[in-house]
């Protein structure tokens, strides 16, 4: 195999369907494939199965491989995709704003990843979620201000690195101010460059200064810099990351089969060439194609990259540079040479690890989930064993996918609601019971907001649990959810839902000031 052919494989992060490594992918690993990204469909929920799979990948690799996972924590989990996330999500950690606790959660996640053979985690999320209607970031973000996001991104990174897993902050130059999902279209940031520097770019600058080894791009147009191309394929935007922020690590693309970049380029092959030419180093190929097409897609991309080098569209020096960066990251992960500098604002130490047998990361995450809860309303909560629990199921975002989502509360009746359901009729069937409504981003789904108002009019004693991104008032307090009692969890992972159930299962809501977010 020629050096150029090896390099063309080295810069690719492939994916596949199923619980076992397919032969075609093992063959590509023998040719130097740089990375394999696992998704929930590759994992049975057993750490033993995951460990065996990552071992197969490494055994097939000639030059060493970055086995990668998208384990942000909270709503976005691959390890717990079949049972619901056992870790605190970013918005939970931002709401608590204890960087030592964030570092502990990051380290706990990293320990579990390292134990099963994962070397690179596609997290943390460094997007500033300043747009409440954002359909793709939301509770995946630490918060709505760049300072908060920056310090927690570093804390989470330090935790991963302490466990021996490399971090990849995302989605440069920022996806938090958009109202479109780049899985489905190509969003635009129509803001001044200086605004972007102060808001979107600031957390990435903080993470780069702390030594993060990888940064993932977004398929978002930063119009003030390049009005035609998404960041993934824009040399001008990636030039800001390299030249202005001083980043010399691996630039990883978001999945090239997403519509935000595959659409404009007519497919992932041409998008791959454009991304490499713009300065990206490791090209992510997601699992969006049918199982029978995955091998062909990878072959097309390799062929397109080789053709681009041959006909002059891609400089061989650029391809070689990208491959060298991937090699360096593989070596750093193997040796454990990952920076763990000081965390901004860290005034103490947090403990980590499970102490109650509920999972490998239950301790720090459950503490965070409990502290993040914001409760508004009456001080007395009725006995809910006789209650009606209404769960409003909306289509999940593509990034999170279908993950179990339920409130583990002992109730008499549980109903799952859809837009076609008549909530007045449902209430009439159980007129004497307390009512608890479980929702996610009610403000983004008109039918959910409408049904909640109907329930609140019929049952003023309604208890609402909001698991999505909160709408806040002028003082930064969550608002906009009806009910005599409202609980905001800042995420829908199983650990956050457990914390909410614990709170509702007690007779007395803690008074204002005793929790991270209680109000009357």
Automatic annotation (TrEMBL):
Gene Ontology BP annotations: carbohydrate metabolic process; peptidoglycan turnover
UniProt xrefs under Pfam families: Glyco_hydro_3
Keywords: Glycosidase, Hydrolase
Region span, Disordered: 335-358
Sample GO molecular function, one term: hydrolase activity, hydrolyzing O-glycosyl compounds
Domain of life: Bacteria
Start and end residues of each Glycoside hydrolase family 3 N-terminal domain: 31-327
Family: Belongs to the glycosyl hydrolase 3 family.
PANTHER family from the UniProt entry: BETA-HEXOSAMINIDASE-RELATED (PTHR30480), GLYCOSIDE HYDROLASE FAMILY 3 DOMAIN PROTEIN (PTHR30480:SF16)
Protein name: Glycoside hydrolase family 3 N-terminal domain-containing protein
Lineage: Bacteria, Bacillati, Actinomycetota, Actinomycetes, Kineosporiales
């Amino acid at each position: 195999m020629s050096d150029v052919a090896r390099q063309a494989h080295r810069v690719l992060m492939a994916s596949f369907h199923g619980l076992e490594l397919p032969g075609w992918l093992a063959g590509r690993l023998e040719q130097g494939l740089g990375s394999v990204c696992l998704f929930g469909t590759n994992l049975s929920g057993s750490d033993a199965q995951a460990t065996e799979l990552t071992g197969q990948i490494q055994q097939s690799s000639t030059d060493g491989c970055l086995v990668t996972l998208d384990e942000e924590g909270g709503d976005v989990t691959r390890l717990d995709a079949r049972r619901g996330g056992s870790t605190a999500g970013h918005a939970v950690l931002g709401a608590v704003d204890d960087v030592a606790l964030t570092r502990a959660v990051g380290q706990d996640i990293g320990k579990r990843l390292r134990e099963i053979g994962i070397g690179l985690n596609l997290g943390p999320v460094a997007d500033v979620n300043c747009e409440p209607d954002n359909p793709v970031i939301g509770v995946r973000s630490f918060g709505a201000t760049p300072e908060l996001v920056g310090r927690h991104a570093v804390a989470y990174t330090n935790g991963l690195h302490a466990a021996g897993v490399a971090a990849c902050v995302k989605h440069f130059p920022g996806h938090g101010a958009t109202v479109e999902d780049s899985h489905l279209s190509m969003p635009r940031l129509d803001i001044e460059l200086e605004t972007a520097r102060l808001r979107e770019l600031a957390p990435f600058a903080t993470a780069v200064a702390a030594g993060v080894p990888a940064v993932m791009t977004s398929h978002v147009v930063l119009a003030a810099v390049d009005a035609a191309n998404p960041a993934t394929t824009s040399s001008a935007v990636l030039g800001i990351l390299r030249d202005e922020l001083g980043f010399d690590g691996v630039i990883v693309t978001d999945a090239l089969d997403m519509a935000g970049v595959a659409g404009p380029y007519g497919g992932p092959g041409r998008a791959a060439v454009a991304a490499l030419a713009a300065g990206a180093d490791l090209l992510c190929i997601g699992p969006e194609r049918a199982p029978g097409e995955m091998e062909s897609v990878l072959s097309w991309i390799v062929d397109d990259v080789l053709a681009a080098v041959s006909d002059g569209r891609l400089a061989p020096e650029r391809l070689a540079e990208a491959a060298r960066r991937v090699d360096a990251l593989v070596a750093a992960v193997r040796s454990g040479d990952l920076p763990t500098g000081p965390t901004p604002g860290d005034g103490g130490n947090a403990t980590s690890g499970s102490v109650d047998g509920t999972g490998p990361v239950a301790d720090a995450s459950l503490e965070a989930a409990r502290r993040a809860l914001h409760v508004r309303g009456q001080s007395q909560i009725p006995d809910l064993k006789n209650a009606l629990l209404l769960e409003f199921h909306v289509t999940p975002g593509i990034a999170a996918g279908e993950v179990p989502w339920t409130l583990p509360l002992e109730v008499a009746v549980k109903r799952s609601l859809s837009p076609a359901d008549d909530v007045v009729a449902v209430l009439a069937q159980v007129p004497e019971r307390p009512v608890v409504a479980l929702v996610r981003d009610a403000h983004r789904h008109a039918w959910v907001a409408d049904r909640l108002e109907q329930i609140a009019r019929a049952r003023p004693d309604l208890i609402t649990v909001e698991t999505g991104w909160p709408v806040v008032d002028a003082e930064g307090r969550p608002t906009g959810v009806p009910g005599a009692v409202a609980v905001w969890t800042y995420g829908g992972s199983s650990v956050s839902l457990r914390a909410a159930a614990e709170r509702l299962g007690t007779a007395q809501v803690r008074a204002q000031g005793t929790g991270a977010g209680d109000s009357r």
